[in-house]
Design a protein that fits this description.
The structure is a single chain. With 134 residues, this protein is of the alpha/beta class. It has one domain: Rossmann fold, CATH 3.40.50. It is built from 4 helices and 5 strands. Strands 2-1-3-4-5 form a 5-stranded parallel sheet, sandwiched between helices. The model has no long low-confidence stretch (mean pLDDT 95).
Length: 134
């Protein structure tokens, strides 16, 4: 079983709930983005990063700063991306996955949830956690 880190930022608690569900399913360490740095990437075999859609479907600037610092250190580790949204159609996740893959990140999956995660969302998160935990 892989050592997994879940790194997230949440404004309303919805993305935090997703992080907790992933962590439970993957027996992972959970970090608020303020408590994680790129120097910590090497301690993990797989990582998940979570951020809700902000503004005009974009990542939170403070979260994005940590994400950008981590990207060059991820190598071929499996990475999952997740987050919640209230408006729009999930374009921020499509853009995030695309830019991550363009940067060479090994994205093994993503999950978006409209507002709070429900039972089917929790199942999807558990499946995603399985891809991380190996």
């Amino acid at each position: 079983m892989s050592k997994v880190a879940i790194v997230y930022w949440s404004q309303t608690g919805n993305t935090q709930a997703m992080a907790k569900a992933l962590a439970e399913a993957a027996s992972a360490d959970v970090f608020d983005v303020a408590d994680f740095s790129a120097d910590m990437v090497g301690a993990y075999d797989a990582l998940a990063f979570g951020c809700p859609a902000m503004g005009s479907e974009e990542l939170d600037p403070d979260f994005e700063e940590v994400w950008d610092a981590c990207v060059p250190r991820l190598g071929q580790r499996p990475v999952a991306l997740f987050g919640s949204y209230d408006w729009g159609c999930g374009e921020w996740m499509e853009s995030w996955v695309s830019s991550a893959e363009d940067a060479g990140v090994n994205v093994v999956g993503s999950c978006i949830v409209h507002l709070e995660p429900e039972a089917d969302d929790l199942e999807e998160l558990a499946e995603l956690a399985g891809r991380l935990a190996g």
